[in-house]
Each structure stands twice: as structure tokens, then as C-alpha cells.
Amino acid sequence: MGLFPLATVVALLLVLLPQFSFFTFVHGEIPTTLDGPFKPVTVPVDTSFRGNAVDLPDSDPRVQRIVKGFEPEQISVSLSATHDSVWISWITGEFQIGDDITPLDPDTVASVVVYGRYEYPMTNQSTGYSLVYNQLYELEGLQNYTSGIIHHVCLTGLMPNTLYQYQCGDPSIPAMSAVSYFQTMPVSGPESYPSRIAVVGDLGLTYNTTSTVDHLLINHPDLLLLVGDVSDANLYFTNGTADHCFHEQTYQPRWDYWGRYMQPLVSKVPVMVVEGDHEIEKQAGNQMFAAYSSRFAFPSEESGSSSSLFYSFNAGGIHFVMLGAYTSYEKSGYNYFLTSFHFSQSLPQLSTESDSYFSPTGDQYNWLELDLASVDRNVTPWLVAAWHPPWYSTYTAHYREAECMRVELEDILYEYGVDIVFNGHVHAYERSNQVYNYTLDPCGPIYITVGDGGNGEMMDIAHADEPGNCPQPSTMPGQNMEYFCAFNFTSGPAAGKFCWDEQPEYSAYRESSFGHGLLEVRNETHALWTWHRNQDLYNHARDQIYIVRQPDICPVKANGT
């Protein structure tokens, strides 16, 4: 028998192996953005492989509750704003669903994490806070839900780039988890980066999801970026019947199933989430985002944000800005999002004391401007932004849906020199050339859509530039963006039209396949981006490019304060 149990060996490999490369490359020599802009490429759709868009049933052992009493489950790690602190989150107790539910008392179970550096005694202990959230409906016959007790504990004073072991729970019951592991981020600096960052969107909980996660695990990330649409619980009626159409019911146990399935990954690899439209989840009293804002820990307060819907953090020499597309993002004046839902001036509040569902008009913009102005590019040379609906997608689905957001925020992101933007929402993969205001620009960001994580709504395959596929502005936008800012183009090859007649020059590569991406920042100017398809071998790169920063020719508005 070996020295360590197999589960321990796997856990250690997951956090220690990112420094090694396992990839084979399909394009020979890897191109760089300096070789661009590239001629647009569309990979023909393989209609025989649109993925197994079937949800995991509640009978699947991977989503069933296997703990007893108040033992922790659905354990996850997330980052704070800097390298020396992380959040540990978990759930104890059982959810309730039905007509007659009584919320659990969070004060009955303590929120404790014991931890220490790997191979050292776990002599450190931190405590946090706990909460319960409800999903309630006013219509008779709909089933209400109340969660288990959700715990969040922030560990501080951690050493950079160090492997830690931990247990969470309540030692007084006793009800503690098994030992798990995580590795902290490297200290911020121009030569200090996480080895490998996985990026995925629209994950859901289907058999496609399991394929994506299996591929992702083999690639050994040390950070996971999830750009919205998490559990897809809103594709169900409250009685647990799958509908796969947008409506105002949800089946909240799907969130618990998702947390159980993802625990082997996210209890070891930090996950950073930003909301998508599937997280809105309207309920009684006009409340929204209850599950999203309760189940995950966010470095909102640490990064100066007033909301869990937008925040920022550092990971080595990368500054990440996570933006909210489903809350106010305007500089001032008209509030597109709130108007689209016909809200009154009295906005609902979260059950937690420190957050609100919606930010006042200008709040996110003002926060973003202060955050970007505070970034010292000599310390964090790379600036990466992420939100859910893409600005530069050429698919018919959600075509130009987030144009209001682009009009409000593109200028400030360009002025401060954002290098890469990650989006989801569109269930396909697309990588742009460097672009600003629909025009090729060597100082513009690369926009990458990775909404192909595994959702149950199938792949998006139609392109707006193909004959007969251009949507009419009167039919746009989608379910959750009723106010629309997109009109016919006034210049360029598509002048006078709502869509291009061919793949736009800003679109470098697009393909309809499920998969995930990996970002490997090598130094202060070069980062390797790799996209993997689920139908390929685990170490096979489908799309790959070096993204090259050019600070000498692309000066930014601010270089630290």
C-alpha cells in the first residue's frame, strides 16, 4: 500500500502539476497577435456532434447528498482581492422545498476553518459568518425553497504560491470535513503569474458539463474563471420538471446538485464567478440573484465594490475586473437594466447586510473608473475583464444584445488598456482580432466567447452574417435586456445594414463545439491562450494563440497611483 490514499494523491496533483505542459498543438508554430489581424475563420458545424445536452438526473450519485447531519458539503474555495487571503465556503444541513418550509437557524452551526501549510500541523483557525436564503413565489401551487446553512470564512495572512491543507465545519458538534488542499496565488509582480487559468461559461449540469470538467481537470488549472450561467436551475419548474425554456420559476435543488458535483474541483481550485442571466431568478418581492449572491463568496468589499455583481481581484501580475451586465452600468442618467424590468424606485435588498441586488445608476461605472485608475501596470501588467453577454459575437443568438453596455463601457476599458475580455452567453466559441468600436485596432482587446461549457440548451450554430440569419432589430434583444441600443451600422463594410454580409473582419475564429479555455501568462507581454474541444483528446489544442501586449505603442490612461 502506498504512503498516501489515492484521493490525496489526486488532490495534490491537481494543485501541484500546472507548471508542466501536457499539450499537443494542431497549428504547428503558434501564431501571435503580432501576426494579425487574421483572416476570419469559420469551422463548419459537425451536426452529428452537438453534445449530449441532457441534464444529470437527481439519481446520479455525483449529485446526491452523501454527508450526514451537519457535516459540510458543497465545499469551494474563492480568492480575495490579493494573494494573502482566500474564502472557504460550504453548506451544512438540508434544504427544504414545498408549501410549508421553515428556514434553518444559521446560529445553530459554527463556521470554522482549521488550516496550515501542507506537511505542517493545521494550527491556524478562522471563523466566519453563515446565512440561509429563500426562493419564494406568490402564485399558489408553486413550491418554495429554503437553503441549507451557507458558511463563508476568509483566511488571511497566507503565504504566496503556497500549498495549504484545511478542514471546515463545526468542531464542537463535531462535524468537520475531510482534509482538502488549495494553493495560494503568487504575489503580484511583472514576473509572477498563476501557471494556468481555466475559463468557462454557461456550464450548467449536463453530460456535456461532465465532459468539460473532465477535460479541465486533466489540464490542471490553478484558478477557474466562470463567466456566468452556473446551474441553470431556472430551466426547471418548481416541482423539478425540466422545461429548458426561460420562465419565472426555478428548481433550486439544482444549485445543490451543482455544488455537490463541482466539489472535487472547486474545493481545491479557487473559482471566481460573475453572474449571467440564468442567475437572475426573479421571486416574490422583485428579489433576484439570491442563490448567486448567497452561495458564493466574492471579494466585493475588499475591492471597494458595493455589490457581488461586480468586483475585482489580483492573481499574480494579472488584475481581473468582473463586471455586472444585469445591473446598472451607466455613467449617469438612464438605467437600461432597471427599466427593462419595470422596477419601482424602491429596490429589493439581499438577506445579507453588506450587499444589495442592484446598484444605483452610476455606481458600477464610478467603481470601475476608480478601480482601473488604481491599477499599477508595473505591478500587474495584465488587465483582464469578464462579464456574461458578449459585445463582439457574430452568432444570431443574442446578436448585439449587450450593445447598451458596450456603448457605456467600451471607451473606458479601451482608455485603460484592457488586454483580454472573456464572455459567455452565446453557446459556442469565438475569438476576435484586436478590436475597438467594431474597427480593427492593435491596441484593442481580444474578445473571447466561451459560452460552450455544457448547458442544456444545445449549441448555437447560426451566424448573423449568413443569408437569411440576420435578426431584425425589432425582434431584439433577448429575454433580460428589453431596452436595445443596436441600430444599423453607419460606417465600414456593413454601413447601412444591421448585419455584415460575411464573417466580420473583427472575428478571427469561430466554432460551435463544447469545450473550455486556458490562459497561461508567460511574462509581462506574452500570454498563451488555448481552447480545447470536448470531442478531442485531453491534451489536444483546437485553437491557440499568443496574445502580445504592446505597452510601448499602446499607452494607457493611468499607470498606477
State the distance separating the first and last CA atoms: 57 Å
Tell me about the biggest sheet?
A: 8 strands, mixed
Report the portion of residues in β strands. 15-25%
> Could you tell me the number of beta strands?
30
Overall pLDDT score? 89
Describe what is shown at a glance:
This protein has 561 residues and is α+β, with helices and mostly antiparallel strands.
Protein described:
A hairpin with a 2-residue loop joins strand 23 and strand 24. This protein is an alpha+beta fold and 561 residues long. The radius of gyration is 22 Å and the shape is globular.
What is the fold's blueprint, element by element?
Elements: H1 6-16, E1 24-25, E2 41-42, E3 73-79, E4 86-92, E5 96-98, E6 112-117, E7 124-127, E8 129-131, E9 134-135, E10 144-146, E11 149-155, E12 163-170, E13 175-176, E14 180-183, E15 197-200, H2 207-218, E16 223-226, H3 253-266, E17 271-273, H4 290-295, E18 311-315, E19 318-322, H5 336-340, H6 363-373, E20 382-386, H7 403-415, E21 420-423, E22 429-432, E23 435-436, E24 439-440, E25 446-450, E26 507-511, E27 515-521, E28 526-533, E29 540-541, E30 543-548
Parallel strand pairs: 1-29, 2-26, 15-16, 16-17, 19-20, 20-21, 21-25
Antiparallel strand pairs: 3-4, 4-11, 5-10, 6-7, 6-12, 8-11, 9-10, 12-13, 12-14, 15-27, 18-19, 22-25, 22-26, 23-24, 27-28, 28-30
